[in-house]
């Protein structure tokens, strides 16, 4: 027999794998350390078999804690070809607030060096196309840079977030330097020497002109599935949603510490007096789209959604070179986007394990279907996984996912030439899907 799950290499070199016929007939053996019914019901519906983590498993839906152990240097075992997991080993290059920004900054610099039109700047030295994350500094490391920037615009509000926490924990807003000095004294980082990631924070310019609907601030949660980083192939889930604050928004500084005004996290909002337990303060993306088309017009709404898709692809391209593109991995990210009142989208952060807890009945159905469609792409036909699969499923298998970007296809289309659109409009954000409409679209982002 083999050793258990991942205790060392599973088959010795001489040992022959069972004949193909027997593999086909086999049932996928699954493990999870996230006891969520939307997951387990999906596995059971497929007739998959639950096993323990120290047995031979094919599919492990694991928490980010566990993935760290699986791929850690100490344990460093190899997964075999019939095993897949739901995270890339160093997903934190995208999903840690500080690292995402660092990688995007690096990506811009590289495009600039190459003379790419994507890295074009305006007369004030701001990126025209790549300015999609709010100005961000790491603390304590970039404290002096932050102060310099703060003094340029002393009336601005900044949002502080601990790098390693989620669900709105540890977040606060500041609009005076004295507040951050107080924070630095209080948080045992008074000397600003301790650089341990534990107390690393990011401080970002707060988007204080968010688009409001019914006077309330909201953000977008979009699900993006990456099946491979090199070549990049990613899918967008059509059923994203908006999360609303329960309290009307005011930029007034007297409300800086009222998180019901500023943070959309359900983990926070559900404690508000006005939280709605039926719809949970959520709207579907298609509702948002209809609302914007009727209030702002079709054209600007389409442009907004094109830009959102474009910044997601750019963020993935920014991390692709550093991502450990392990063939045993896929990952479904929760993207958080804020739209300002000029209909400009901002990438706020990317989550590695978007919440599978359901706050409402609709939420539960959405998440069940999200997992179902994700599994259909990650484990085609529910066959025993094989890492050597060609990872591009047929259109009919995508469910509510649509292909967002396919690097191989883009290159074979010759669409990888960075062309500005001839008529001098901004860069074509449409991608190759737009060409089906019969209009020639020159794309730069493929």
TrEMBL record:
<dbReference type="Pfam" id="PF03133">
    <property type="entry name" value="TTL"/>
</dbReference>
<keyword id="KW-0963">Cytoplasm</keyword>
<keyword id="KW-0206">Cytoskeleton</keyword>
<comment type="subunit">
    <text>Part of the neuronal tubulin polyglutamylase complex which contains TPGS1, TPGS2, TTLL1, LRRC49 and NICN1. Interacts with PCM1, CSTPP1 and LRRC49.</text>
</comment>
<dbReference type="GO" id="GO:0070740">
    <property type="term" value="F:tubulin-glutamic acid ligase activity"/>
</dbReference>
<dbReference type="GO" id="GO:0000226">
    <property type="term" value="P:microtubule cytoskeleton organization"/>
</dbReference>
<keyword id="KW-0067">ATP-binding</keyword>
<feature type="region of interest" description="Disordered">
    <location>
        <begin position="1"/>
        <end position="22"/>
    </location>
</feature>
<dbReference type="GO" id="GO:0036064">
    <property type="term" value="C:ciliary basal body"/>
</dbReference>
<keyword id="KW-0966">Cell projection</keyword>
<keyword id="KW-0547">Nucleotide-binding</keyword>
<comment type="similarity">
    <text>Belongs to the tubulin polyglutamylase family.</text>
</comment>
<dbReference type="InterPro" id="IPR004344">
    <property type="entry name" value="TTL/TTLL_fam"/>
</dbReference>
<protein>
    <recommendedName>
        <fullName>Polyglutamylase complex subunit TTLL1</fullName>
    </recommendedName>
</protein>
<dbReference type="GO" id="GO:0015631">
    <property type="term" value="F:tubulin binding"/>
</dbReference>
<dbReference type="GO" id="GO:0005524">
    <property type="term" value="F:ATP binding"/>
</dbReference>
<dbReference type="GO" id="GO:0005874">
    <property type="term" value="C:microtubule"/>
</dbReference>
<keyword id="KW-0436">Ligase</keyword>
<keyword id="KW-0969">Cilium</keyword>
<keyword id="KW-0493">Microtubule</keyword>
């Amino acid at each position: 027999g083999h050793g258990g799950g991942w205790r060392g290499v599973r088959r010795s070199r001489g040992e022959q794998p069972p004949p193909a016929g027997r593999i086909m007939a086999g049932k996928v053996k699954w493990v999870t350390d996230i006891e969520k019914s939307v997951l387990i019901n999906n596995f059971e519906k497929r007739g998959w078999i639950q096993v323990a983590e120290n047995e031979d498993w094919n599919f492990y839906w694991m928490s980010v804690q566990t993935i760290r152990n699986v791929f850690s240097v100490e344990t460093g075992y190899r997964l075999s070809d019939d095993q897949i997991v739901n995270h890339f080993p160093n997903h934190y290059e995208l999903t840690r607030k500080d690292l995402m920004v660092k990688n995007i900054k690096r990506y811009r610099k590289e495009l600039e060096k190459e003379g790419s039109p994507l890295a074009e700047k305006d007369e004030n030295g701001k990126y025209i196309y790549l300015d999609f994350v709010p100005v961000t500094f790491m603390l304590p490391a970039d404290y002096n840079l932050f102060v310099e920037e703060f003094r340029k615009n002393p009336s601005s509000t900044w949002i502080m977030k601990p790098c390693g926490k989620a669900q709105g924990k540890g977040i606060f807003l500041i609009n005076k330097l004295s507040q951050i000095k107080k924070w630095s004294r209080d948080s045992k980082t008074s000397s600003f020497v301790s650089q341990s990631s534990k107390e690393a924070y990011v401080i970002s310019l707060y988007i204080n002109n968010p688009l409001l609907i019914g006077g309330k601030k909201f953000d977008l949660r979009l699900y993006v599935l990456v099946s491979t980083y090199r070549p990049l192939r990613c899918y967008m889930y059509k059923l994203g949603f908006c999360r609303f604050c329960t309290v009307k928004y005011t930029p007034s500084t007297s409300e800086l510490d009222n998180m019901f005004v500023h943070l959309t996290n359900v983990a926070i909002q559900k404690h508000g007096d006005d939280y709605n337990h039926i719809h949970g303060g959520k709207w579907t993306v298609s509702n948002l789209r209809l609302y914007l088309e009727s209030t702002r017009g079709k054209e600007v709404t389409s442009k907004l959604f094109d830009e959102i898709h474009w910044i997601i692809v750019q963020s993935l391209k920014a991390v692709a070179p550093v991502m450990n593109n392990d063939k045993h991995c896929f990952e479904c990210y929760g993207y958080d986007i804020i739209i300002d009142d000029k209909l400009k989208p901002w990438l706020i952060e990317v989550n590695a394990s978007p919440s599978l807890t359901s706050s409402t009945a609709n939420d539960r159905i959405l998440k069940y279907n999200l997992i179902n469609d994700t599994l259909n792409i990650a484990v085609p036909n529910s066959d025993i996984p094989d890492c050597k699969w060609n990872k591009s499923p047929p259109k009919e298998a995508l469910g509510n996912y649509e292909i967002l970007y396919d690097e191989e296809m883009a290159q074979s289309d010759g669409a990888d030439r960075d062309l500005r659109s001839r008529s001098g409009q901004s860069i074509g954000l449409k991608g190759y899907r737009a060409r089906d409409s019969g209009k020639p679209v020159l794309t730069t982002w493929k």
